[in-house]
């Protein structure tokens, strides 16, 4: 497959916008529109939609999120694989390193927590900091998120904007609409709170679609388990805050079972799909 990325958006031959990335608030990030070649972006969306209600979609339905995902590379189509391959290439990793100042970046062949995501009407993702170490590759520390949105004619009234919150969780500093062929790259660190906590109010025929990839660095020592840290927002009820906390603790136990007992996501997804 010929050029996957839009050369006007990602210029391998020239320095990336490191200053813009590092100086962004509330934590380092960059928004790139028209990220993929237009034809490739359209093919990726068509492929995403073609999965329909396929059994390929795993369910993530619990207190802190309601979405579906395809996390296995082998279950994806030709265009999805081509895009993931390009965004995992040495050339793109080098570009990311120049952009962020982070050396030794590696992509995740397991797509742990990543892959194709789909959120339907009523779906949401509570504000959180992502897991900071790989679940099974114990020396891998997580460094970056890359989110690529695939939503044509998205209406901001439907909610679903990516919210970037301050470290003290008092308010969102940025709200980034999930527009078609828009890519958001941001640091994964202890203070990188983000999410789209308000349930989608889009028509039932519309879904919020995206591709998520995560980048790691191999460290000398094993990294402590650091599960996704969900947080309540100001104004959330006492009960909701307690439920978010309880769900976070359950997720911590689940992450331990994944690392130390080899528990697979598919087992839990089959249970959640029935909820």
Explain this structure.
The chain has one domain: Sandwich (Jelly Rolls), CATH 2.60.120.620. The chain is 26% helix and 25% strand. It has six helices and 13 strands. Strands 1, 2, 3, 4, 5, 6, 7, 8, 9, 10, 11, 12 and 13 form a 13-stranded antiparallel β-sheet that branches. It is globular, with a radius of gyration of 18 Å. 38% of the residues are buried. The model has no long low-confidence stretch (mean pLDDT 91).
| Mean pLDDT, all residues | 91
Topology-level CATH name: Jelly Rolls
Helix and strand pattern: HEHEEHHEEEEEEEEEEHH
Quickly name the level 1 CATH class: Mainly Beta
Strand content: 25-35%
Largest sheet: 13 strands, antiparallel
How helix-rich are the residues, as a percent range?
25-40%
Quickly count the helices. 6
Provide the structure class. alpha+beta
Counting DSSP E segments of at least 2 residues, the number of strands comes to: 13
* Total domain units: 1
General form: globular
- CATH H-level homologous superfamily name: q2cbj1_9rhob like domain
**Termini separation:** 40 Å
In short:
With 275 residues, this protein is α+β, with helices and mostly antiparallel strands.
